[in-house]
Amino acid sequence: MSATPLLEQSQFPETPVLSLAVSGGADSVGMALLALELGREVEIHHVDHHARADSGDDRAFVEEWGRRHGVIVHSYDVVVPPGPNFEARARAERRRVLPTGVLTGHTADDIAETFLLNLIRGAATPGLGVGDVATMPLRGCRRRDLREWLSSRDEEWREDPSNLSPAMRRNRVRGDVITLLSDVAGRDVVPLLLRSVEQLSLDRAYLDEISREDYARGLEEVDCRELAQWSPQRRHVWLRHHLRWSDELGESHPPSRAEIRRADDVVLGLVRACELLGGRRLSRHQQHLSLS
């Protein structure tokens, strides 16, 4: 396969040096090779989570790949013990060691999968996003095209066995859900899902734009009597913005629909206080809210 379509679909930022997160998998190796094909200066960052007995082989592969292509490789050792929330804890460790704005090899397929995962999690519009797409230069590329191109170049990559495990929800979405949806639709649904993601992102950006003045008014400064005069939609958007919370891993979470309803009851004076996730309590005193 020719690299031309992939080069046209890739969207690398105009920075002097591209910092790339490369695991050794096909997507991230493809990202690095495409950047070099475009004549860009590249530095690679590899994180070894020590999650598998052979994870050191991934590191050795990436470091050798960098030497072969004349690219600087920065390797980081982190330890993520097995257990609940492994993926979230691994993300937190990657964020801790990787440079800000590092580019990742997420493809169009990854974005579609993330959208579906967020959807079945019950996320509303603000939670259906996929993160900062500006750090995903392959967001317009398909996974299969990258692999075909790498194979045509006799380039090797590493396969993570966990990507085949049915215990991982993303793998079920990738192998079962998207396949079934495409069968039902009679066409490849990934471009359709990407269209939805793009439109939702535009809608969300516009909502944030028209809500900027509301967001600037803090949770405790607006009189509840004024809030009661707002439309429920405007009030709920304002509450959702101010009631986000971060867990111990630094992951940011919007309040659930049930939490918004409980918080709205406090605003309207139907109850004096309510409990929220993250061990928080929203209360009302002398027509003003307080979050503790």
How would you describe this protein?
With 292 residues, this protein is α/β, with parallel strands linked by helices. The chain has two domains: 4-198, HUPs (Rossmann fold); 213-291. Helix content is 48%, strand content 13%. It contains twelve helices and eight strands. The chain has helices spanning 4-9, 26-37, 55-69, 86-97, 108-120, 143-152, 169-185, 190-210, 212-216, 224-229, 232-242, 257-267, and strands at 17-21, 41-48, 72-77, 245-246, 252-253, 273-276, 280-285, 288-291. The strands form three sheets. It has a three-stranded parallel sheet, with helices on one face. It is elongated and about 70 Å long. It starts with a helix and ends with a strand. The model has no long low-confidence stretch (mean pLDDT 91).
Question: What features would you highlight for this structure?
Answer:
292 residues, alpha/beta, Rossmann fold, 2 domains, three-stranded parallel sheet, three-stranded antiparallel sheet, 8 strands, elongated
